[in-house]
Each structure stands twice: as structure tokens, then as C-alpha cells.
Amino acid sequence: MSLASPYDALLLLSFGGPEGPEDVVPFLENVTRGRAIPKERLVEVGAHYFHFGGVSPINGQNRALIAALERDFAGQGLDLPIYWGNRNWDPYVADTLAQMAADGVRRAVVFVTSAYSSYSGCRQYREDLAAAMESGGAGSAGLSLDRIRAYYDHPGFVEPMIRSTVDALGALDASVRDAAELVFVTHSLPLVLAESSLYVEQHRTVAHLVAQGVELATGVSGRVSTLTYCSRSGPPSQPWLEPDIGDHLCERSAQGPAAAVAVPIGFVSDHMEVVYDLDTEAAETAAKLALPFARAATVGTDPQFVAAIRDLVLERAARARGEQPRPKALGSLGVMPDVCRAGCCANPRAHRPALCGSD
Ligand SMILES: CC1=C(CCC(=O)O)c2cc3nc(cc4[nH]c(cc5[nH]c(cc1n2)c(C)c5CCC(=O)O)c(CCC(=O)O)c4C)C(CCC(=O)O)=C3C
Ligand SMILES: [Fe+2]
């Protein structure tokens, strides 16, 4: 019996991104279909992609993650083919599910490249799966899907970020290092979506765990740390999570910490938000303020994170077999369920069918 029984495949489900200048506008149309995003914001975000030759880093990072997982699985004797599908760009998840059904996959486990609960990172992916099952014909072909829980609290996600934050502190001049502030960063959300999920509480938990781990590793206590947001969009009239990282850096008082390390806990790899909003924009803001600044690495293909994904697959498989594995989880919010509760991560403006939930 395979270690991952009852599953015969893993699906990596992600956001997708453009791979050349001609892809940028159609990609943005896919992302924003049916949403109230002002035209000026789209032009601005398009410019971020054009700034990098029209190529988002996300697809290459997903290819690298899949290659790392394949090596890890092979090394552990775990025989589980890996498929990849996206919400907004090729390979589209509907095409992937159709391919999986054609290959004879009957039951697959789904890993989403978003560690936290929110409409965008949880329910919307479950809606994508429901729609893709329909349109690609995979549902009628007998394929069934189970999702891996939100994994923001897995030690294999948190611990690499503690190490990368310590490394980023090490890149600062020794004279400001111990006084540097930790500026945790994640994607902003409209308040209505923040309120329908545990998004903010989960990020506070990770920020606290990383700050604690850094304190332990460096022996420096009392360091200032703040949770900030990036990539706000939507109309100005709509309230979103704040403060924005740029505003936060500008508004720090002259007596504030002597340096800042941005820690992008909201992203599993160096997405456009990281390479643009942090490495480009926030770094420029810090330079204008003469504030020494460094950015911690995302988990990416860190071997501990790759092993954590394997652990999450095996944990989910054990529960699917009716066993009670002990989930690896830090913090005190409690492990998120495999099958989302009714109303979990709801979008009050849209009610669409979704898989892997009880509504
Ligand atoms: C919570 C969250 C995550 C994290 C969870 C997850 O990973 O899913 C995430 C990920 C991502 N968001 C991304 C890109 C974009 N997000 C947009 C728009 C929006 N994101 C939102 C939220 C989130 N987004 C929201 C509430 C909107 C407003 C419109 C809407 O309600 O949908 C827009 C439209 C323009 C704009 O408004 O900025 C773009 C281009 C990329 C690709 C980056 C790359 O190319 O590397 C990734 C990984
Ligand atoms: Fe987004």
C-alpha cells in the first residue's frame, strides 16, 4: 500500500502569473473579472509586471517547488505523481483536472500555495475546484479531491522564516542590528473579507512565533515588531487592512528603531508583491528615509518547507484512512479543519459552489 493511500496524486493549486509582456493584460483581466478594481490600480499593477519584462516570478517558483517535492518524495519512497493547476493562468486548473481524470487519477489531495485562511486564499480556491470539475468534465469522470488544511502554523513553514529573519538581521550593519524593527508583511484585504476569516489572527500568531524565535536565536529582547500590509487595491471608499508597509515606514517617529527588516510572512515564495512592493517600493522608501533596510527570504523551496508539504500530505492521507495523526502545529488557535465549516472565508458579495467545505 502506498504511504499516501487513499490518494493517487497531489495537485498543487496556485494563483498563476504572466510569462511575457503579451500575457499581462489578459492575466489581469482574468484576476479582476467581476471585481470592483479601479482602472488606475490596474494600470499601476500592470506596470509592476512590465517592470519585470511582463514575467511574474510565481510560475517559475511553482515549477521549482514541484521539482523539489518530486526529489523529496522519491528520496522518501513516496510514490505520488504531482500535478499543477492555476486560477488565473496556464496551466489552468480545469485543464489539469481533465488531464488527471484522463490519466486515471481517482482521488487526489490538493495543496494550495496560500498558508492562511481568507476568501482569496481558501474559499476562492475551493470555488475554482468546483468550477473546474464542472467545466473540464473531471467531476463526471469520477475524480474526487480533498484539500490540505491551512498550514500557517506548521513548524516547517514558521521555522525557515525564523532563520531567514535572523539572516536578514545579519545583513544589517552591526551598529543598528540589535535595534532593528521586525516589519511583518502580508497581502491586504477588504475588511469585510478579513472579518469572515481568521486571516488577521493567524498572521498575528505567525508574527509572534517568528519574533519569539528570533529573540531566542539572537538573545535580543524587547525588539519592536509590527504587522503591516501591502498590495491594497479596490476603490478608496472601501476599507482595507492597514497600515500599509510604506506608510508605516514613513510614519515611524524619528526616535523609532534605527533599522527595519521586512518579513513577508504572508507569501510562500517571492511573488510580485514581494519583489515589487517590498524589494522595489519599500526599499526605496527606506532609502529616502535613510533607514537601513533588509528583507527576509520567503520559504520558497527551503528543504524544511518541502518536507512540511510531504508531512501535510501524509497527515491528510492518514485522516482520510480514518486514523488520528497528531498534526504538527504551533500557536494556540487550533488546527484548521480539513473540511471547511459552513460560512468559512465567505465573500458576502458572491455565493458560488465550493468543494472541500460543508456549505
Ligand atoms: C489574500 C490574497 C493573496 C494571498 C493568498 C493567495 O496566495 O492566494 C493574494 C495572492 C496573490 N495576488 C496576486 C496578484 C493579484 N491580486 C490582485 C487582487 C487582489 N488580491 C487579493 C488578495 C490576495 N491575493 C484581493 C482581495 C484582491 C482584490 C481583488 C479580488 O478580490 O480578487 C490583483 C489585481 C490587481 C490588484 O488589485 O492588485 C493581482 C494582479 C498574486 C500573483 C503575484 C505574482 O504574480 O507573483 C498572488 C499570489
Ligand atoms: Fe492578490
Low-confidence stretches: none
Structural class: alpha/beta
In sequence order, what are the helices and strands, one letter per element?
EHHHEHEHEHHEHHEHEHEH
Share of residues in helices:
40-55%
Radius of gyration from the alpha-carbon trace, in angstroms:
20 Å
Shape type: globular
Tally of separate helices: 12
Strand composition percent: 5-15%
Q: How many structurally independent domains?
A: 2
Q: Main β-sheet, in a few words? A: 4 strands, parallel
DSSP strand count? 8
- CATH names the topology of the largest domain as Rossmann fold
Q: What would CATH call the class of the largest domain?
A: Alpha Beta
Write structural notes for this entry:
The protein is an alpha/beta fold and 359 residues long. It folds into two domains: 9-17 and 56-150 and 301-320, Rossmann fold, CATH 3.40.50.1400; 155-295, Rossmann fold (3-Layer(aba) Sandwich). The protein has helices at 24-32, 39-51, 58-75, 93-102, 119-136, 155-170, 174-177, 191-195, 199-218, 245-251, 272-288, 303-320; strands at 9-14, 82-86, 107-112, 144-147, 181-187, 225-230, 260-263, 293-295. The strands form two sheets. A four-stranded parallel sheet has the order 2-1-3-4, with helices on both faces. A four-stranded parallel sheet has the order 6-5-7-8, sandwiched between helices. Helix 5 (119-136) links the parallel strand 3 (107-112) and strand 4. The radius of gyration is 20 Å and the shape is globular. The model has no long low-confidence stretch (mean pLDDT 96). Coproporphyrin III binds next to helix 1, helix 2, helix 5 and helix 11.
